[in-house]
Write a structure and sequence with these properties.
The complex is a heterodimer of chains A (about 140) and B (about 180). By secondary structure, chain A is mainly alpha-helical. Chain A has two helices and two strands; from the N terminus they run H-E-E-H. Chain B has one domain. Chain B is about 85% helix and about 0% strand. Classes of the chains: A mainly alpha (about 140), B mainly alpha (about 180).
């Protein structure tokens, strides 16, 4: 029951983000990421996959139950391309590098905080060893 | 746990043990699910390695798993959002990174669905090809690539402690 409630809340959060994305597409701010080419299609111009340009010769469009189906006939796109392992390695290295920077920053921040706390404790110890401080003088 | 068990009565000790076992199972689930998401995202981002078919199906699966991940941590979302003003700077940074990641990953998966050329048509769903969604997919994938390691690294202590626990626990399991 709790999982269902949380799932519904998470789904709602995702739906809000998607709705914001759709709103962005229909606003003038869409040109920020997809500036329209003069004489070409605008950022939100729709082109259904059935109208694929001739360059997509490996894609066949057939009529299915839920509408049109596009079948990719390109034999090279079917599975893992082990020859392009460099692409995967590059992604992994990039992720590891960013993570390492964050961990290093976290360690530096932690050690600085500890040093600050130690310094504060030392000051408090010295103040305690020096004896009680005289209170403020009262007048009248 | 053993100290608690010694001090408590048998019935409460059983309750504590059961609760602790549930918490451990949940931690293990979180750990392996998060690891699967990280590996899945790394694979899905490497388009040249996976090719369009695996890229699209993996992306769809990631979308579903991310929804489960968000559901499992919804308590944290609510708790941290409520105490956002009173929390320390680090918690606020984690919250902001997670919010940005939610937006980026959701838009990445959604735009991937919109521009899908293999997976969605195979399911009989008509997809679109628009410059906006094409660019949005690339942009959000790149933002996600930057945020995922930050998201992981901000919890590196938890990762190290759970990984250590899982590794050290194995020999005991085998002996049973």
């Amino acid at each position: 029951m709790k999982f269902a409630r949380h799932f519904a809340a998470a789904l709602l959060a995702v739906a809000v983000v998607v709705a914001l994305g759709v709103a962005w597409e229909h606003s003038s701010a869409a040109r920020v990421i997809a500036p329209s080419v003069p004489g070409g299609p605008g950022p939100g111009s729709r082109q259904f996959v059935r109208r694929l340009p001739p360059s997509h010769g490996n894609v066949r469009v057939i009529k299915g139950h839920g509408g049109l189906r596009v079948i990719d006939l390109n034999p090279e796109s079917g599975g893992l391309d082990l020859a392009d392992l460099q692409d995967l390695t590059h992604t992994a290295v990039l992720e590891a590098a960013i993570a390492a920077v964050v961990v290093a920053l976290s360690l530096v921040r932690r050690s600085r905080r500890r040093a600050r706390v130690r310094a504060r404790l030392r000051t408090a110890d010295q103040a305690a060893a020096a004896g009680p401080q005289p209170g403020p003088e009262t007048t009248g | 746990m053993t100290d608690l068990g010694r001090r408590a009565t048998p019935s409460t000790a059983t309750g504590v043990t059961a609760r602790r076992r549930r918490a451990l199972a949940r931690t293990r689930l979180d750990f392996w699910l998060d690891a699967a998401i990280l590996v899945g995202y790394t694979l899905a981002y490497s388009f040249g390695f996976t090719g369009p078919v695996i890229h699209e199906w993996l992306g769809l699966a990631l979308g579903l798993v991310l929804l489960v991940h968000l559901t499992l941590h919804w308590d944290w979302v609510v708790r941290t959002t409520r105490k956002l003003v009173t929390r320390r700077g680090r918690d606020r940074v984690i919250w902001l990174v997670n919010l940005a990641l939610l937006a980026a990953m959701t838009l990445c998966v959604a735009s991937g669905i919109v521009i899908s050329r293999v997976a969605m048509p195979a399911l009989g769903i008509l997809t679109l090809s628009t410059p906006f969604w094409d660019r949005l997919h690339i942009l959000t994938a790149e933002i996600t690539l930057g945020l995922v390691p930050v998201h992981v690294a901000l919890r590196w202590r938890w990762i190290v402690s759970v990984a250590r626990h899982l590794i050290t626990r194995r020999p005991g399991r085998r002996s049973r």
